[in-house]
Amino acid sequence: MSKIAFKAESKRLLEMMINSIYTQREIFLRELISNASDAIDKIYYKALTDDSLVFNKDNYYIRITADKASRTLTIADTGIGMTQEELENNLGVIAKSGSLAFKQENEAKEGHNIIGQFGVGFYSAFMVADKVTVTSRALGSSEAYRWESEGAEGYTIVPASKETVGTEIVMTIKPNTEDDQYDEFLEPYRLKAIVKKYSDFIRYPIKMDFESQKPKEGEDNEFETVIEEQTVNSMVPIWRKNKSELTDADYENFYFEKRYGFDKPIKHIHISADGAVVYNAILFIPERTPFDYYTKEYEKGLELYSNGVLIMDKCADLLPDYFSFVKGMVDSEDLSLNISRELLQHDRQLKLIAKNIKNKIKSSLISLLKDEREQYEKFYESFGRQLKFGVYGDYGMHKDDLQDLLLFYSSTEKKLVSLDEYVSRMPEDQKFIYYAAGSSIERIEKLPQTEIVADKGYEMLYFTDDIDEFAIKALNTYKDKSFKSVSSGDLGIEADEKDKADDAEENSAKDLFEGMKAILEGKVKNVKASKRLKSHPVCLSAEGEVSIEMEKILKAMPNGQDVQADKVLEINVNHEVFNTLKSAQASDPEKLKLYTNLLYNQALLIEGLPIQDPVAFTNDICKVMV
Q: Do the bridges between strand 416-418 and strand 477-478 make them parallel or antiparallel, or are there none, so unpaired?
């Protein structure tokens, strides 16, 4: 019996394949189970057109047997088997796939879900085995053959005996090394875990024997070892069942079984698509953020299956970053996979699925917002920040997808409102969507800058999250309405008779404000009479794109960006303080300097900005007191 060299490839190629193509060693079991499932499928498909074949599903299964004593792992199936020629063609030529050829020959028939298409999956066995022996008897044949190989040097094929149709693969598992523990592939419960992870939804039973201790019959305190056969895979995945058959509890159990989270999902989305690309998906909107969600360590992505076989734990390409909180899975037979059953980077079908999933998530969230407001607000408390990051990211590219999902606290409604709800309540004379930014609702409500907007009866949105104002800057407009900070230079509010009188007062105090500006040189861009203050003496506003709140946030970042807002010190000309300033201007320049610095530092405190020289500030207060 002479050894036959592999026809197509060199020893180096096989070594590369078994050491480099597969990212995880345990994948070998997925590959061999998928091949076994394909072999059973082939009998099923033949039975569809061959009246002499009767396919009784109870007779078809896959069995896994581990023998620690001989260090062998056996995977047997009752599938179609292989002739000597097929063993030669399918196992003697690396990257030759009988499944792919079968699929191509039968493409016109409906219902084909052949998993294996690449032919290299079988060779993954050499990642864990020193020797692989394949004994197979083909359907319709009384003869069996044994293919055997110890790696890249070649293989042998000899006649063998096998009582039943099908294929049996026996792997002699490698001994342990300092770095690798191969014994794990001889442990039944470890093998079961691998099956559950990758092959739980193979449509045929995967059977294994397990030892357990049971009391002896008639004996209270004596136990005996009993061998029991178990089917370790679920076979029928939930996503292939009709939605009408499933309850909320079924979806929740699936969520917990797959360990998508420890919370209870707020909503599930079950997709059965049959169009340009065929796929099934079950997606979940979680209730709470994972502990690492807002860290670099968090990995987004959905589980990706091809015909019930797990291909990727986390396929990031299926979700946009702003929906990275979504958990779940996608199963499709249309995906283009590479030789290690992993996804090709720029797969057209994958992009179609991802686009559809994005739209489904958005429409589900919109529905949740409209129909289950309390649940949506619970979701938003956990993940609203991520939606805002999505608006701000990529230069506002995704704002149209996300703007209707945003909520902000309303000054008049005293609760979270959407932008659509805000705009629907705007009076005809209101030009802008007004907002006020601060560290908390309580702090914002005390801001002097809100007085004139509130006096006009205009609703304000309160921005308490550090991303809020950045997101709104990216959004720019909503339904043709621009956003306007209550601290911006021009509020766009029509002047009344009182404002006109203030303008006259400002003109008469031009020299005063110029003098104060000189005192605060380098600290403010301007000093002027305020059109927004009612009862407060002073406040800061900002001109330009960077607001005072944005300055605070940027400076607090780890990289400490030294960004300055163009600050304007605004004085209420209807307040007694203004008269004090005019008196100081006329009689005591030092007192004017003292009052100017005090007002500026007071304005900083109101904004939550640091005072540059606290000691000087306290000394100034003391000067006023004595």
A: unpaired
Q: How do beta strands 166-173 and 206-215 pair? A: unpaired
Q: How many helices (H) and strands (E) does the chain have?
A: 19, 22
The stretches of 264-397 forming alpha helices (DSSP H) are: 348-371, 373-392
- Alpha-carbon distance of 380 to 372, in angstroms, equals 12
The pair of three-digit structure tokens given for residue 385, joined into one six-digit string:
């920040």
Condensed to tens digits (0 to 9), the pLDDT of residues 563-580 reads: 889 999 999 999 999 999
Q: Report d(CA 96, CA 92) in Å as an integer.
A: 8
The CA-CA-CA angle for residues 463, 477, 453, to 5°, reads 50
Contact 233, 205 (CB under 8 A): yes
| Side-chain half-sphere exposure of 498, counting CA atoms within 13 A | 10
Give the three-class secondary structure for 460. Answer: strand
The pLDDT value given to residue 102: 46
Half-sphere exposure of 436 (CA within 13 A, CB side): 28
C-alpha angle 110/115/120, rounded to 5°? Answer: 140
Q: Are strands 129-137 and 144-149 parallel, antiparallel or unpaired?
A: antiparallel
* Spatial contact of 160 and 189, defined as CB atoms under 8 Å apart: no
CB 452 within 8 A of CB 533: yes
Locate tokens 């009689």: which residue? Answer: 587
d(CA 568, CA 300): 44
Alpha-carbon Rg for the chain in angstroms: 36
Q: Break the chain down into helix, strand, coil percent, rounded to 5.
A: 40, 20, 40
Contact by Cβ (8 Å): 453, 491: yes
Chain centroid offset of residue 59 CA: 42
Q: What is the pTM of this model?
A: 0.81
In tens, the pLDDT along 247-268 reads: 999 999 999 988 898 889 999 9
**Are the CB atoms for 203 and 77 separated by under 8 Å?**
no
User: What is each CA distance from 361 to 25, 42, 331, in whole angstroms?
Assistant: 35, 38, 17
- C-beta of residue 518 within 8 angstroms of C-beta of residue 550: no
